Amino acid sequence: MMLNQEPTAAQKPVTMMRKLMVAGNWKLNGSQVMLRQWLADYAESAADREAVEVALCVPYVYVPVLKELAAADVTVGAQDLSAHEKGAHTGEVSAAMLKDVGAELVLVGHSERRQDHFESDALVREKCQQALSQNLTVVVCVGESRQQRETDKTFVVIKQQLDAFSDLITADNVGRFLVAYEPIWAIGTGLTASAEQAQEVHQFIRSQLAAKDVTMARQIRLLYGGSCKGSNAFELFSMPDVDGGLIGGASLTAEDFMAICREAKKLMNETQSS
């Protein structure tokens, strides 16, 4: 289903001028053995990842292992952080702590955090601020439920989510902001947004960012985060406003993850030869 409302398109360069990112999100999965095996398998696929920037977001406890063992081209990521700098907040992990153990990037506002832990747009903003205070790269997740899509509220919901943090983006930190579009209805359901559906929303996101600053909007990479895998990555990444993927289940093995990276490389090669 395509949306009825037509977003205003922001003038932009072709996708390949923004280096593609393929970011894995292990969610509540993994072990030291699994991570070591993943990294060993990944190390054998250097030629397949030339086209992309790779990030891997693992549970907090595995961040130090990832930092120690990962190849230099892997950006070390965490899946969440506290909205507090420090204090009496048992169980929380601060931006400074993540930085201290080697994290370079952090997910903020993932749909599972918003739904399962009732995180508000205001809390997402506070977490962005904490991440920025430690110079962490921030991947802010936005997206709509199936009910919101079917009632034509997709753009309303996403605009509200963007408005909560977009004023934090400045010329000094724009390179450390990414936005991941997660159609909630396509996460773990077997459903996948078509490339055209993904592009429609990504274009809307970029148009909203461009309303504040066109130059910065052109720089910000927009990732697609809804059941992206090797079989559909090429088509998704071919869209002008899709700058890579936030990968869930397909990131749990290096083989599946690298299949996505190979599609990105294929796209780069075709774009350069055209």
TrEMBL record:
**What InterPro entries does the annotation carry?**
Aldolase_TIM, TIM_sf, TrioseP_Isoase_bac/euk, Triosephosphate_isomerase, Triosephosphate_isomerase_AS
* Enzyme Commission code(s) on record: 5.3.1.1
Identify the pathway. Answer: Carbohydrate degradation; glycolysis; D-glyceraldehyde 3-phosphate from glycerone phosphate: step 1/1; Carbohydrate biosynthesis; gluconeogenesis; Carbohydrate metabolism; erythritol degradation
A GO MF annotation of the entry reads: triose-phosphate isomerase activity
> What are the subcellular locations of this protein?
Cytoplasm
Q: What class of enzyme is it?
A: isomerase
Is Cytoplasm included in the keywords of this UniProt record? yes
Q: Which PROSITE patterns match?
A: TIM_1, TIM_2
Q: What is its main location?
A: cytoplasm
Keyword field: Cytoplasm, Gluconeogenesis, Glycolysis, Isomerase
Q: What is this protein called?
A: Triosephosphate isomerase
